[in-house]
Write a structure and sequence with these properties.
Layout (H helix, E strand, L loop, with lengths): L1 E3 L2 E2 L7 E2 L3 E5 L4 E4 L13 E4 L4 E4 L11 E5 L4 E4 L13 E4 L4 E5 L2 E5 L11 H8 L19 H7 L11 E6 L7 E6 L15
Antiparallel strand pairs: 1-4, 2-3, 4-5, 6-7, 7-8, 8-9, 10-11, 11-12, 13-14
Length: 205
């Protein structure tokens, strides 16, 4: 059993949040301390889920605010790995978090979020898509990057279904006069992919 965080003293703003913890072995009835090196900042009412080889800690309260941070604790070598904050929710505490087998699903009142451990966490693009084009832990895979310099960032490439590492093809939108019709125009965009719905928004003049 792993215990981490919480507070000492009375609850509320007079309490002192903690970033320490321990591991209890029921077979031997003994406790051992948890390393605090690179541990998340002190907090209570945070989320904690077990993913088979490490504990993920996220959110919570520290007496004055809700930390937008977390970490992953590995009991095998007693180490912490800081949690990525790319696209993470601004606040999460108290309610529910579960491990789905691939990621942590968080629900807090009307807030829901999904965290898959790794460099690409919380950024809004499926991790498998990023790994497919960029491999593991590549900064060029982040949503606002444009590694192929075609003027469309990775988020736009993902939505369009195009290859973010190749400037050809990129999503192109054009408005052209219809052949032989002075008052009629055609909207042409390409490439188009099966399984995607394309919606045109316009303002009538």
């Amino acid at each position: 059993m792993i215990v981490w965080g919480g507070y000492s003293g009375s609850s509320g703003y007079g309490s002192k949040p903690l970033n320490t913890g321990g591991r209890f072995n029921p077979a031997t009835g003994t406790w051992s301390p948890i390393s605090d090196k690179q541990a998340p900042s002190a907090r209570y009412e945070h989320f904690a889920v077990w993913r088979g080889e490490e504990m993920i800690v996220w959110g919570g309260l520290d007496g004055t605010k809700g930390p937008r941070s977390g970490g992953r604790y590995r009991p095998a070598d007693d180490t912490w790995v800081p949690g990525a904050t790319n696209g993470a929710p601004d606040f999460a505490s108290r309610d529910d978090a579960v491990w789905t087998g691939e990621g942590m699903l968080v629900y807090n009142e009307k807030l829901s979020a999904y965290y898959e451990p790794g460099f690409y966490s919380w950024d809004g693009i499926p991790n498998n898509w990023q790994r497919h084009y960029f491999g593991e832990n590549n900064s060029e895979a982040l949503p606002l990057e444009d590694p192929d310099a075609d003027g469309q960032n990775n988020w736009q490439e993902y939505v369009a279904g195009t290859n973010p590492t190749n400037a050809e093809p990129s999503l192109i939108l054009g408005i052209h006069q219809a052949p032989g019709q002075l008052r009629r125009f055609e909207i042409i965009f390409s490439p188009r992919f099966d399984g995607r719905n394309y919606t045109l928004l316009y303002i009538a003049s």
